[in-house]
Design goal:
By secondary structure, the chain is mainly alpha-helical. The protein has one domain (6-100): Orthogonal Bundle (434 Repressor (Amino-terminal Domain)), CATH 1.10.260.40. It has helices spanning 6-13, 20-44, 49-56, 60-67, 75-84; strands at residues 93-95, 98-100. It has a two-stranded antiparallel sheet with strand order 1-2. The longest helix is centred in the N-terminal third of the chain and has 25 residues, at 20-44.
Length: 102
């Protein structure tokens, strides 16, 4: 039985890196990971969505949408959420396989 890597399967069923479909898939995956990180940090701080929303200045529904990746939130809001959670955010930017310090 032949085994396949995740990259091979993703290339086959989603599309090769650089394709429009693959870029969309990768972006959605990143948003899901961001939502999961927000939920995990909130739960670690023993906060409800409503309490976090009050700290950030948004409604509970907005926190829920962020955690479930159902909205394209403003970057400033995401930063406020992590600040309220006392969480550090790191960025990694690459262009043409070159890393850019942030």
């Amino acid at each position: 039985m032949k085994t396949y890597s995740l990259d091979e399967l993703t290339d086959k069923y989603i599309g090769k890196k650089g394709s429009k479909r693959r870029q969309g898939f990768d972006n959605e995956l990143r948003l899901d990971m961001l939502g999961h990180a927000i939920r995990q940090a909130r739960q670690d701080r023993k906060l409800t969505q409503e309490q976090l929303g009050e700290l950030v200045g948004v409604k509970k529904a907005q926190i829920s949408k962020l955690e479930n990746s159902t909205t394209d939130a403003r970057f400033a809001t995401i930063l406020k959420v992590f600040k309220a959670l006392d969480a550090r955010v790191k960025f990694k930017v690459e262009m043409n396989n070159k890393k850019i310090a942030c």
